[in-house]
Amino acid sequence: MHCHLVRTVAGLCCYRGRSHMQRLLGPWNPALRGDQKAELVAGLCRDLRGGAEAPEVFITFLKMLAEFHRLHQLPGIAVLFERLRAEAESTLHAQLISAAAITDAQRKRRRQGAQNEVPA
């Protein structure tokens, strides 16, 4: 649940090639205080969740990042979090590229083979 929120907000904060959210949330922006920046991000979460509030622990996390002037680093935090989570869960994301169309049976066989190849 929390990892989904981090990924979603991180996506909002860091569009590839457009960094207006990072400029807004960064410590170099004197127009907003840290708590205002945290509330802004929490509001984005609420909007993305159809009006549902984000968990309090996530709001506290945002406030802590804002207090230490690190809210603009949320995209990088999300990447590291995903990497550590995948490692802890022993998951691997892969993409199969083929010159010819593959059948469902081939796809299933490849998926099973990939599960057996993942080091423990």
Task: Characterise the protein shown here.
It is a single chain. By secondary structure, this protein is mainly α. It has a single domain, classed as Peroxidase, domain 1. It has helices at residues 2-13, 20-25, 34-48, 56-67, 74-89, 104-117. Helix 3 runs antiparallel to helix 4.
Question: What's the arrangement of secondary structure elements?
Answer:
Layout: H1 2-13, H2 20-25, H3 34-48, H4 56-67, H5 74-89, H6 104-117
Helix pairs in contact: 1-3, 1-5, 3-4
Short description:
The protein is mainly alpha-helical and 120 residues long. It contains six helices and no strands. The chain is 62% helix and 0% strand.
List the defining traits of the structure above:
Peroxidase, domain 1, 120 residues, mainly alpha
Task: Let me know the largest β-sheet.
Answer: none
- Fold-level CATH name: Peroxidase, domain 1
CATH class: Mainly Alpha
CATH architecture, by name, is: Orthogonal Bundle
End-to-end separation in angstroms reads 26 Å
Number of E-state strands: 0
**Strand content bin:** under 5%
What is the share of helical residues? 55-70%
Order of helices and strands: HHHHHH
- How many domains? 1
SS-based class:
mainly alpha
Assign an overall shape. Answer: elongated
Which spans have pLDDT < 50 for at least 5 consecutive residues? none
Give the C-alpha Rg: 19 Å
Q: What does the average pLDDT come to? A: 76
Total helical segments: 6
